[in-house]
Design brief:
- It is a single chain.
- With 424 residues, the chain is mainly β.
- The protein has two domains: 338 residues, Beta Barrel (Lipocalin), CATH 2.40.128; 76 residues, Immunoglobulin-like, CATH 2.60.40.
- Helices cover 7% and strands 57% of the residues.
- It is built from three helices and 26 strands.
- The chain has an 18-stranded antiparallel barrel. It has a four-stranded antiparallel β-sheet with strand order 23-22-25-26, with no helix packed on it. A three-stranded antiparallel β-sheet has the order 20-21-24, with no helix packed on it.
- The chain is globular.
- The protein starts with a helix and ends with a strand.
Length: 424
């Protein structure tokens, strides 16, 4: 078996539990390593905020001769330690009930809220059977240092993939190296390079393969992204490398539209099989604009569109349509179900503090009974993008260079969020 085939097989289970309608160009165009890359970049922001709701269910349906019918159901359970379990069930038309016929996934976290492990089970012979797991390892500074992917062989786990991120001087991951075990040693198989613009937005993912001698790299695939002023993707072009012509072949693209407040509204996917662009699939999303996704407890990599990390409002659902001649045929519909959620102050390590003035023009003052000499102040956009990190100096922070807008802030010490809120 070719090395690239081994790596692809390993990565299939690293991403989130697949939602219905995933056998589409949308999901095929998203690099599976990119999903893992997204998870880590969105995880830190998601874990810092106190939640008022939690995602409880995902209900999917497909069209049939008698109208829409049940198809897929995801039930999400949360542990007091920050872990979560997702059960994926299919609709049994004979019994008119949801059956545990697919799989489940559990994610665990450490005391700072960082994900440490994701374990997957498949449903076989009337019971859940261990299938695989991903281990997340962080270094002393909190950076993700290693990922290990393991497959269960019936009695123990075999490690079949090792992913090593590399960071630049500013702490930005610019390269992920994939390695597989062979002959008692780890062989490099792929390099995934990430390019960002001056605002920190991801603009290109370049994948190269290592040769058998482990001394040189050859092109394999790449994504080029056009990003708007809000840091959102307007267009993504996906290429594969043609070794015969030594050139890139553009085989698919996706375009995106957004609401005025930045929520993704529509994604359109195109194929290029005949040498010209043809629409193939379309995704449309709905939201509750009176609520923020930042206030919802959910598995980090769960929502569609999960790879862009730019959702602002509370997602309500989405529809999938496939191009058929001149028409768009409905293929899938989904809704998200929530319930109220509250967490005590102690569980989030939050300390009492007075933040003023708000709105702020120049300096923001932080009054607290705690010593904040070693705390840091972080600012995020409502989409979760990190804007700035500042050291708290004598109980205040200089924000004179901050552009007008609404932000999420956190006060952190020793990798723990000790206070947070919204800032204008």
């Amino acid at each position: 078996m070719e090395k690239s085939t081994i790596v692809l097989g390993c990565l299939l289970a690293i991403g989130a539990i697949a939602q219905p309608g995933t056998n589409t160009p949308k999901n095929q165009s998203i690099s599976l390593v990119e999903k893992l890359h997204y998870q880590i970049h969105s995880e830190d922001f998601n874990k810092t905020l106190t939640k008022t709701e939690q995602l409880e269910e995902f209900e999917g349906s497909t069209p049939g001769p008698n109208g829409w019918g049940n198809y897929n159901y995801n039930e999400i359970q949360y542990g007091v330690d920050g872990s979560n379990m997702v059960y994926v069930k299919n609709w049994d038309s004979q019994t008119s009930s949801w059956q545990a016929t697919e799989r489940k996934q559990q994610k665990t976290h450490n005391v700072t809220g960082a994900k440490t492990e994701a374990t997957n089970w498949t449903y076989l012979n009337g019971a859940y059977q261990l299938a695989n797991k991903t281990l997340y390892v962080r270094d002393a500074s909190g950076h993700q240092s290693d990922y290990y992917y393991l497959i269960y062989n019936g009695s123990t786990y075999d490690t079949v993939l090792w992913v090593v991120p590399f960071y630049d001087a500013q702490g930005v991951d610019t390269l992920w190296q994939l390695r597989i075990p062979q002959g008692g040693q780890w062989l490099k198989t792929e390099n995934h390079s990430y390019t960002y613009d001056s605002y920190g937005n991801l603009t290109q993912v370049l994948v190269k393969e290592w040769d058998a001698s482990q001394t040189s790299l050859t092109n394999k695939a790449k994504d080029d992204r056009t990003v708007n002023t809000n840091g959102q993707i307007d267009e993504k072009l996906t290429y594969t490398w043609n070794s015969n012509s030594s050139s890139w072949v553009n085989d698919s693209k996706a375009t995106y539209t957004y609401s005025a407040n930045g929520d993704p509204l529509e994604e359109t996917y195109y194929s290029n099989a005949t040498g010209s662009w043809k629409e193939s699939w379309k995704y449309n999303y709905t939201y509750d604009t009176q609520s923020l996704v930042a206030d919802i407890l959910h598995p980090v990599d769960y929502y569609y569109p999960d790879f862009s990390n730019k959702i602002v409002s509370k997602p309500l659902g989405y529809t999938v349509r496939q191009k058929n001649g001149a028409n768009w045929d409905s293929a899938f519909s989904a809704v998200y179900v929530y319930n109220n959620y509250s967490v005590s102050v102690e569980e989030h390590h939050v300390i009492p503090a007075k933040i003023y003035p708000n709105p702020v023009a120049n300096r923001l003052f932080i009054e607290s009974t705690e010593n904040l000499d070693h705390a840091i102040f972080k600012l995020f956009t409502l989409q979760g993008k990190l804007v700035d990190i500042k050291q708290i100096d004598n109980s205040n922070v200089n924000l004179s260079d901050l552009e007008s807008g609404i932000y999420i802030y956190t006060v952190e010490e020793n990798n723990l969020t000790i206070h947070h809120g919204k800032l204008k």
